[in-house]
Structure formats: structure tokens, C-alpha cells
Amino acid sequence: MAEALSDLGHEVHVIELTELFKLPANLIIERLHSINPDFALMYGVSGLIHISHNSREINLLNDLDIPFACLICDNPELIMKTLKWANCSLMHLFVWDEVYESELRKLGFNHTYPFALATNARRFAQIAANVNKEPEFRVPLAFIGSLPNSESIFRLQNEIGLPSLLLEALLRVRKHNPLWTWRHCIHSLCENLGEESAKELELLVNSPGFDKVNLFLDWHLTYVNRSGIVQFLESEGLNIWGGENWRSVLRDANAYRGRIDYETETPILYRSADIIIDVPSAQLLTSVNQRVFDVLAAGGFVVTHHQPDLDKFFKVGKEICSYRSKNELIKRIKHYLTCPDDRQEIIDAGRARVLKEHTYELRAKYLIDIMEKVIEKRRSVVPQLASTYFRHISCNICERGQSVDLFTIQYPYGGTELEFKMVLCQNCGLAYNNPQWNPELIADFYREKYHRTPNQHEQDVKVINIAVPCYEQELDFLEEYIGSPARILDVGSGTGSFTAVTAARGYEAWGVEPYRKAVETAIRLFSKCGGQYLEGYLEDLVLPKAYFNALVFNDVLEHLHKPKQILLLARDLLVSGGFLLVTVPDVESVIAKVQGYLGQLWGPPFHLYGFTRRTVKKLLESAGFEVLKCRTGLMYSGQIMVIGKKYFD
């Protein structure tokens, strides 16, 4: 990539990290200042310089305000801890696989772009073109690649504690869903396992060592796939170049030809062998292996496993040859070994396509185009003062200030980008937005989200038809605790469904909602049911104290800036021994983990808090309520429903 950037006329400084990390922090900073780069480029997270400076642990690039681009050419789960630590508006991820790109966006990495692998044309096209076919490499079938060490795989399995039966079940899930990440496979399997096995897998997903789980699963499946194909083709005269681990799986010791130098020998081998066999590693879900581009650039013929992205890059059958099964692979091999003219047609067409569209010089130009826009935007936008939009807060439950970062997402606003950061309280475990977006800023986002459309009435009716049956059951649950007659206040009543349900059963029903158009919709749709609908925030309205038998907060607390303080107000409105019914999304639920940080349960930037069963109970207790029951909610998968009782006046 450095060569490609230089060829495009850019000034490139290559920094050897092993040498850089030997320097003290002040000299590292001085070195970067002397270069004054427009942006930094690295493979994976290798260049994320984590140093201690002035008694602070910092990501140096972020601290020096240097945008940086990470080329993610591995399973991102292997480096997820570092990615989460480094996530900020300066970080831009270029990802080789569209599945991983989608997953990273769900986890809050907004600046994520597709970045397909390619070839170094200078190395593979030019070297191969200037060298005759070498007799040593003139073989009918060749495989070049590594094989994970079986003993290392076994040790890693023991280290992470994954039983063989669960491993087999996971491999079956992946076989039927080849585009699923391991995280997705595990969550799917959990839903179909017994409670004990599901807990075992959930512990793996949530453990700090989940990167090792991914590494083991990738290694294991790569070992199975590659050794299976190589052993299958051994009788066909396959020659293998790669690491020493191949010796343990080959029946014929002569089939193993030893190691090969990637820069000087592989271009010649690719050009000299009749057919190169490609078996992608398991971490490639949709993307095409770099070996495919390299072989074609060198003027060689490759038969590769049919990855989904292959059809995007080539005319399959005319510019590239692929297989989906072992039987299909052997058919392709026999045909093209006996039909050299057909083979040459594909070689010529494939090479032309690669040199025209799939070189690292072209990929570098694509990356530069994106980063130039980033740089231009940073130069043209006058940064707004952070104090205009944010305020630093402590945990709303325990009021402590110690926290660790969970995720950061950038949102465009007023010509710049604002960071929405969620942190986790180290004392009580509450997830909350900090620094917290101020109410005026949040209101702007709500106005955009709740803009009324011409067919809004039909949309309202559709939502209400789904909500009312759920609210009927929710009221059944509340009626297990309250008597009749009773006065019920619905806080954050929206378009009025729950208030209407309570009024229809003969209760004195009140609804409070700050959004005017929602109140107007509630009155229009439910005025015949009875009930009072008030516009405003609970803290701004004058309501009778010690009047209501129950207050209800349906998916409201996560939206509030100060939920504990609102619950303290709610307590004053309740009669002695009154009840509080709360529903919130559970950010520890399986569905929340599948959706990721951008999903509806985390709900940024509208959800300022992420609750779990444990933290929502702590919140109610801190506001003076005894938690009587906590159960699964009724409205959607991943919802918590809690009933509390006012236990002192």
C-alpha cells in the first residue's frame, strides 16, 4: 500500500513500529509532530499508539488530533477490545468483508467502508512477465498457503473451555449459515439449546477472551477446510508449498515442497503451475482471497472457492474459475488440465480484469478519495464548543464518576459531527451517555425522527393495532397489585394507547406526553374512550400529589436525562403504598447483542441509558421503591417489565 500511495504522488513516511515503541513518549510525540501527517494509515490496529503521557493513558493519534485509517484484513473480533478503546470520530475503518462492515456499524463504528483485497501489480504482473516458467514449479496442481497447527488449536480449545459437542453444533450452524459471524452463530445456537449449555455459550460471548474464541473457531474451520481439500486432491498429484504443519496431514511426504518466498518466488510459481488451488481461510465470509488477484495478475490459472463477492469482481466462468463442492472442484480440474486453450482464455481475460480494476494502486486511490473528504471537512468546519452540546455527568443511580467507555458513534449536526458516547459505571454497572447530550440537542433529533408524513395516520393506526393487545396484557399484570377503582398516570403516553386501554376498563386514566403532535393524535383517536391527555414534561406540570394509585413508564426511562429524579417526582404523586410499572429495553438480552449498539434496544442517540434487569431494579430502589417482580416484557423481544411499590412517604 505504501508503494501504491507513493506511485500516486503522495508523500509517504513509513514508520517501523518496533523502533518507534523503543522511544520515550515525548520523542514519539516529537517524531509525529515533525512529520505533521494529514492522516495515518495502518494494518489492523498496529499503529494505535497507546502510551502513558503526563500521567494519562492515551491513544496518541486521537490525542494529537490526527485522523487515522485502519485496514481491517482479519476478523475484527480478534481486535475488538482495541477497536472499542480507540473508537472516535478520527478513526476510519476499511474492511475487506461486507458482513464485518455491517457488524462494525451495528457496534457503533460509523466511519466504516468496504475495502476489497487486490494485487501488487509491480510484484506479480511485472516479475512474472519478465521470468520464464521455472521447471521446479511446472506442476499440474499446486496449493500455496498455511495450515494452522493442530496442537495449538487443541490447546486453545482447552483454554477457552469449549466442549466438543458445542463445537460440533456451532460448525453445523455455520455450515447452514455461511455468512454469519461466530457471534451470530452462537446467539442463534443459544436460542435452541438447554439452559445450561446456553449459559455456557453466553459466558464465552461475554467474556473478555471472546477474541480467543473467534481465533480458535477461525483456526479450526480453516484447518478442516484446507486439510480436507488437500487430502482430497493428493491422489491427483497436488503439490503443496507452505509451512511445516502440512507434513502432519499428507499421506505422501513428497507432495510437500517446502516453504516459498512470497515476494520473489510466488509470482513465478503462479505463472508456472497449470492450476493453482485456492481454499480461503474461514474468516473470509463474502470476500475474495488476495491469492486470487495475485495468481491472475501473474498470468496464472486459479480455481477458487465460490465466495459471494466473486460475482461482483469477475465474470465467473470467463475470467475466473470457481467451485462450490469437492465434486465440482474435481470436474473443473480435469476439464482445464485437458483443455489448455480454455484455460488460457480465462487466464487472459482474468489478468486483464485484475490489472484494470483490482490493483492496490486503485484501492489506494479509493482510500485517498475518502480521506481527502475527511480532511477537507475538518478544515472547512469551524468546530463548535463542546460545552454548547454536552455536559459531563456522574452515574444517575450511585452518583459515582468512575466509568469505562462502551462505544462511541458520530452523528452529523450543523456542519460538523457530534460524538455520542456510552460509558459503563464501574460501581453499579449502569450504562449511560457521558458526556450527556443536552435537551435542546436531543430535541432537534426528535423533531427529525417524529416529523409527520402524509400517511402518518395510517402508520399510527398500524402501530396502535399492535400495541393495544400488549397493553391489555400489561394492564392485566398491573391489576394483580392495584385495586379498583384506581387512578393511573401514564408518563410518556405517546399516541395514547395504554391510557386508552386503562380508561376503557373504567379506571381514571391520565396521560402525560411532551410531544404536541402525539397528544393531538391521542385525543383524535381515543377521545371516546375517556381519559385525560396532557402536553408537557412531568417535571413541568402541576399534578396532585399523593393522588395516583399507579404510575406507568412504558419505555420512557431510557430517554430521560435524569431518570432517578423523575422517579422521585413520581413517588410524590403516588398514594401511600402506590405502585410503579416500568418497562425498558434490556441491553444484555440476546436480541440486543445480535442487533449491536446501533440496534433499537440500545437506541442511540435517543436512549441516554442502557438498562439491564440488575440496573433497572437498582434505579427503582434508589428512588424509594420496593421491587416486587421483574419479568420479561410483552411488547417486543428483549423488553424488561418491573413492578415496584412505594415503600416510604
Automatic annotation (TrEMBL):
SUPFAM superfamilies, per database record: S-adenosyl-L-methionine-dependent methyltransferases (SSF53335)
CDD domains (alphabetical): AdoMet_MTases (cd02440)
InterPro entries xref list: SAM-dependent_MTases_sf (IPR029063), YkvP/CgeB_Glyco_trans-like (IPR055259)
Pfam families: Glyco_trans_1_2, Methyltransf_23
Residues in Spore protein YkvP/CgeB glycosyl transferase-like domain copies: 231-369
Tree of life domain: Bacteria
Gene3D superfamilies: Vaccinia Virus protein VP39
UniProt protein name: Spore protein YkvP/CgeB glycosyl transferase-like domain-containing protein
